[in-house]
Amino acid sequence: MDAVYIILKIIMWMLIIFFFGDAVIQNISYSFYKGDRKMSEVTFVPEKINFSDSLTGYGYNLRRDSDKVILCFGGSMYTAYNTVGMYGGYYDCPFISADYYGTQESVGKMSLKTMQQSALDLYEWVVENYPGKDIVVIGHSYGCGMAAYLVSIGSCKQLILLSGYRTSADMYNKIIPIYWGPLQLFIKNNIRIDQYAAVTLCPVTVIGSTADTVLSAELQKKVADCYSNADLKIFEKIKHEDYLTTEEVIAYIREIINQTIKE
């Protein structure tokens, strides 16, 4: 009986650790998009957009005559304002980002389901307001999840993932390395890019860097392998937070977008 008691106690504490760890990391992840997160200085001046009564965001080059529109999902702390303000002007087309429901001025509660709904509602607004335009989706870091989700359900021309992950476990294990294999079932709102990849039809490019210490170049190879025919590009000396402001990366993204649009 003593052995059974000890085993049950160990199991109980393991469950507490797994569930508590998930709750803590999830709250930390969500907190990066809430509160006063606007950067005091941005490179480009974002224009606010009300996609609906409850979903807001920002854009740049909104009236630019172009055959394409870029939707961008930024990483941690990159709310729509920061994403557009730092990246939007590098491309010759409308560049748009939304704030997830429950963050900034978007009404609601942030969860995996409402994040997915935010992406879908953004997509539907763009389809309605930019009819006939090719939709290119870019995701960076945490934002890769909703970028990959949107492309898996929408008619998009191109997906570009910068410093992505296969599931939330790849990010969780950087903080608490316990969510391996089937143990990631304890992640309540698990973002499954590996599953989105299985039903993605458009061209996909995965980008990483040998200097990325957050989500490594080796991980990017595994992310690319989730897709049936993704292109993989590994840069040198580019830090995790610098991809979308580095001219070398910007030029590469422009090149692959233009190539895809022409096809």
Detail the topology: elements first, then pairings.
Blueprint: H1 2-31, E1 47-50, E2 56-60, E3 68-73, H2 80-87, E4 95-98, H3 112-129, E5 134-140, H4 144-153, E6 158-162, H5 168-172, H6 193-197, E7 204-209, H7 217-225, E8 231-235, H8 247-262
Parallel strand pairs: 3-4, 3-5, 5-6, 6-7, 7-8
Antiparallel strand pairs: 1-2, 2-4
Please describe the structure with a list of short key phrases separated by commas or semicolons.
8 helices, 263 residues, 8-stranded mixed β-sheet, globular, alpha/beta, single chain, 8 strands
Please characterize this protein's 3D structure.
This protein has 263 residues and is α/β, with parallel strands linked by helices. It is 38% helix and 16% strand. It is built from eight helices and eight strands. Helix 3 (112-129) packs across helix 4. It is globular, with a radius of gyration of 19 Å.
Specify the number of helices: 8
Please state the CA-atom Rg, rounded to the nearest Å.
Answer: 19 Å
Structural class: alpha/beta
Count of distinct strands? 8
Poorly predicted residue ranges:
none
Shape: globular
**Series of H and E elements:** HEEEHEHEHEHHEHEH
In brief:
The protein has 263 residues and is α/β, with parallel strands linked by helices. 38% of the residues lie in helices and 16% in strands. The relative contact order is 0.12.
